[in-house]
Structures are given as structure tokens and as C-alpha cells.
């Protein structure tokens, strides 16, 4: 796998997708024992009647390094529907994350179906120019919790329970559970799991950064002391420049 030979910076990439017309052509594949050339949308469906006239191609390009890699293509009889395209996009992104790539942006032309897939289906807009890959962060937290819970030596996450991993509708609104989950204890446990490598995911480093920032943010917003050994738990002061740096980093500094 190409990602295995890259450092973290080299794995940052953009996802490029575009559609092109192709000639109708049928060819028998002795390896698959079927005729190729019909509409084929991979995990969505395959037709044995509609001849493919369009090809949707997905390609990734390095953001900081000079490389590019075609990763998948799909055949359709006409332009791919925006509802299908949005599903394929999320499927491709999830598989890229599983392979260790870090997708930072999607690039395409302003075709009607492309725009509809991004804006209508994936809910992208001016003040939310990104998509959320469901479950990615939660899986990392859950894996760390399971590793800690099944540890035969000692536990680090004593306050974390199954309610944190599978909250009911009322527990989802609990600030206490959120503060316990996104805490220094969780960050320390995750860091240990990253160093000892029992995690199979390729995203725990990013999740760790998020947990640390959320922990600092929650400490900052709940600070009620003038002085504390933790600079994020005390009042804002010019003597603590890391406070302002943190606020600017989280884009809250411009709102204060």
C-alpha cells in the first residue's frame, strides 16, 4: 500500500473526481465470468441491460508532495445521479481513511450533479465547507475504551462507562459525560495505545489532537479561578499567552 511508505505529511491529499464519455463496448472477462461494459456502480448496483456511456473516475493528489493515484472508477449509462455520487464519495473517503490517507478537500467541476451531490446531499455550504465522516472519531474512542476495559493489569479510564460509548437520548445531552469523554485521561490512554500500537485504525493521531483541543476548550470555558497550575483553568491574562494562542487557533479569539 502506497500510504505505508509515506510519512504523515505526505499522506495529506485532495480527492479529485470527474466524468467522461466513453464508447459503448462489451467484453467478456474470463476472470470474472461476466461481460464488462454495462453500467456498474460498484457497491450500489450493476446492470445487465444498460450499456455504459460515461465513466466516473476518482483520483487523489498529494497536497504537500508531488504524487497522484487513480483509485476507482464507475460506469453509468448516463451522467451519474447526484444521490449515487454522494454515496460513492463517502464510501471512497472512508476507504481512503482506512488506508491511511488524509483527505483535505474534494475537487470537481461545477456540473449540476456534482453541485447537487455536495450541496443537497452532503449538506455543504459556505459556512460549512466540509463533510463529516460518521463514526470515525467515535470508533477510535470506543477502541481505546475497550482496550482499557479489557486490560488485565490496570485501568486508566475509571470514569468512562458504556454510557459514554452508547448514550441514550438523555445522556447525549449530558455535559458531564462529554467532559469525561474528552478529557486528559482519554488523551493519555489514547496516546499510550498509539505508542504501543494495539489500535488498528489509521486515524487515532487526529482523534488524539481533537480530544486534547476539546479538553482545553472545555477547561477554558468552565474556568472559575484566578490562578491554577493548568493555564486553561484560570482567568485570561497577558501573562498566559498560550490562552490567546489557543483561542485564535480555535477561531474563538476573533469573537471575544
TrEMBL record:
<protein>
    <recommendedName>
        <fullName>Transposable element P transposase</fullName>
    </recommendedName>
</protein>
<feature type="domain" description="Transposable element P transposase-like RNase H">
    <location>
        <begin position="2"/>
        <end position="118"/>
    </location>
</feature>
<dbReference type="Pfam" id="PF21787">
    <property type="entry name" value="TNP-like_RNaseH_N"/>
</dbReference>
<feature type="domain" description="Transposable element P transposase-like GTP-binding insertion">
    <location>
        <begin position="143"/>
        <end position="232"/>
    </location>
</feature>
<dbReference type="InterPro" id="IPR048365">
    <property type="entry name" value="TNP-like_RNaseH_N"/>
</dbReference>
<dbReference type="Pfam" id="PF21788">
    <property type="entry name" value="TNP-like_GBD"/>
</dbReference>
<dbReference type="InterPro" id="IPR048366">
    <property type="entry name" value="TNP-like_GBD"/>
</dbReference>
Amino acid at each position: 500500500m502506497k500510504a505505508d511508505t509515506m510519512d504523515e505529511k505526505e499522506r495529506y491529499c485532495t480527492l479529485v473526481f470527474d466524468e467522461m464519455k466513453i464508447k459503448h463496448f462489451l467484453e467478456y472477462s474470463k476472470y470474472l465470468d461476466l461481460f464488462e461494459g454495462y453500467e456498474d456502480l460498484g457497491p450500489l448496483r450493476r446492470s445487465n441491460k444498460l450499456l455504459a456511456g460515461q465513466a466516473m473516475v476518482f483520483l487523489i493528489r498529494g497536497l504537500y508532495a508531488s504524487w497522484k493515484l487513480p483509485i476507482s472508477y464507475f460506469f453509468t449509462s448516463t451522467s451519474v445521479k447526484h444521490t449515487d455520487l454522494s454515496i460513492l464519495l463517502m464510501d471512497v473517503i472512508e476507504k481512503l481513511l482506512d488506508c491511511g490517507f488524509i483527505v483535505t478537500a474534494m475537487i470537481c467541476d461545477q456540473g449540476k450533479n456534482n453541485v447537487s451531490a455536495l450541496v443537497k446531499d452532503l449538506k455543504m455550504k459556505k459556512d460549512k465547507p466540509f463533510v463529516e465522516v460518521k463514526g470515525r472519531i467515535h470508533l477510535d474512542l470506543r477502541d481505546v475504551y475497550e482496550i482499557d476495559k479489557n486490560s488485565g493489569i490496570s485501568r486508566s479510564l475509571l470514569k468512562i462507562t458504556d454510557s459514554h460509548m452508547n448514550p441514550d437520548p438523555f445522556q447525549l445531552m449530558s455535559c458531564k459525560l462529554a467532559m469525561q469523554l474528552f478529557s486528559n485521561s482519554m488523551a493519555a490512554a489514547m496516546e499510550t495505545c498509539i505508542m504501543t500500537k494495539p489500535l488498528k485504525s489509521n486515524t487515532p493521531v487526529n482523534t488524539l489532537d481533537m480530544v486534547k483541543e476539546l479538553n482545553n476548550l472545555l477547561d477554558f470555558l468552565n474556568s472559575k479561578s484566578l490562578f491554577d497550575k493548568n493555564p486553561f483553568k484560570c482567568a485570561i491574562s497577558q501573562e498566559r499567552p498560550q490562552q490567546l494562542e489557543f483561542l485564535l487557533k480555535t477561531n474563538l479569539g476573533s469573537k471575544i
